[in-house]
Write a structure and sequence with these properties.
globular, about 40% helix, 7 strands, about 210 residues, alpha+beta, binds iron/sulfur cluster
C-alpha cells in the first residue's frame, strides 16, 4: 500500500478547478451519456456543449499509457473530448455569480475525483484485487486550496472504493476509444465527431 494515508483535503468551493483557463475537463463516453440523458439533449445540443481540443503531436504508445483519457480521431485530427469553455475560459457549466456547478449531480468524473487521481499497483489486497494508490493531481497541487495541512484527512476507504470505480470506468472508456481509433486508422469509418457521438449513443449504458 502507498504511504499516502495522510492525504488531506476538503473542498473550499473556491471554483478554481471550474474556472482555470488552462484546465480542460476531459470526458469519458460515460460522462457524455450521463449528461446527455440527465439533461435530455439531442445530438446537436450535445455537440454544442462539447469542446474538441486538438492534440498536435503524433501519439506514441508511451503517450497513450500516460494519458488518463485518450484523444479520439476526428475530421480535424486527434482531439481530446472535453466540456466546452465559456467566454472567460472557465467551464461552460460554471455559474460564476452563484459560484456553483449547474450540472453538479451529472458532473464528469474529472470533477468528481479532483484533486485526486488513482493508479493500480501490482500488489493485491485481501480480496485478491489490485491495490490502488491515490495521489494528488498536478493541477490539484497547483491551485486547489482544499489541499492543505489544515484540511481533514480524507476517508481513505471511501476514496479507494471510488478509485476502483473510476479506474474501471476509465478502462471501459479506453476500450471504446481504442476501438474507434483503430477503425478510423483501418479506414472502416469516417472519423467525424458527429459519427463518434452517434456511435457512443448506441452504447447507452450510463
Ligand atoms: S479547486 Fe479544490 S477547493 Fe477549489 S472548488 Fe476545486 S476541488 Fe474545491
Ligand atoms: S462540470 Fe461543474 S464541477 Fe465540473 S468543471 Fe464544470 S462547473 Fe466545475
Amino acid at each position: 500500500m502507498n504511504n499516502l494515508k495522510n492525504l488531506r483535503f476538503v473542498c473550499t468551493r473556491c471554483g478554481n478547478c471550474c474556472t482555470d483557463k488552462d484546465t480542460i475537463v476531459n470526458l469519458t463516453y460515460i460522462d457524455i451519456l450521463r449528461i446527455k440523458n440527465g439533461l435530455k439533449l439531442d445530438l446537436k445540443e450535445v455537440l454544442n456543449l462539447l469542446g474538441f481540443y486538438i492534440y498536435e503531436k503524433k501519439i506514441t504508445n508511451e503517450d497513450t499509457k500516460r494519458m488518463v483519457i485518450t484523444p479520439i480521431e476526428t475530421e480535424k485530427g486527434l482531439a481530446f473530448v472535453a466540456l466546452r469553455k465559456n467566454s472567460l475560459g472557465g467551464c461552460y457549466f460554471y455559474n460564476s455569480i452563484k459560484k456553483k456547478c449547474l450540472i453538479y449531480k451529472l458532473r464528469p468524473m474529472f470533477c468528481r475525483t479532483f484533486p485526486f487521481s488513482f493508479r493500480l499497483l501490482d500488489e493485491k489486497n485481501k480480496e485478491n484485487r489490485k491495490k490502488i494508490e491515490i495521489i494528488y493531481t498536478e493541477k490539484g497541487k497547483q491551485y486547489c486550496p482544499g489541499i492543505s495541512d489544515e484540511a481533514p484527512l480524507i476517508n481513505y476507504e471511501k476514496w479507494i472504493i471510488f478509485g476502483e470505480k473510476t479506474l474501471e470506468e476509465l478502462e471501459r472508456n479506453y476500450k471504446v476509444i481504442e476501438e474507434w481509433n483503430d477503425m478510423v486508422k483501418k479506414g472502416k469509418i469516417i472519423s467525424t465527431v458527429k459519427k463518434f457521438l452517434l456511435t457512443i449513443f448506441k452504447l447507452d449504458d450510463s
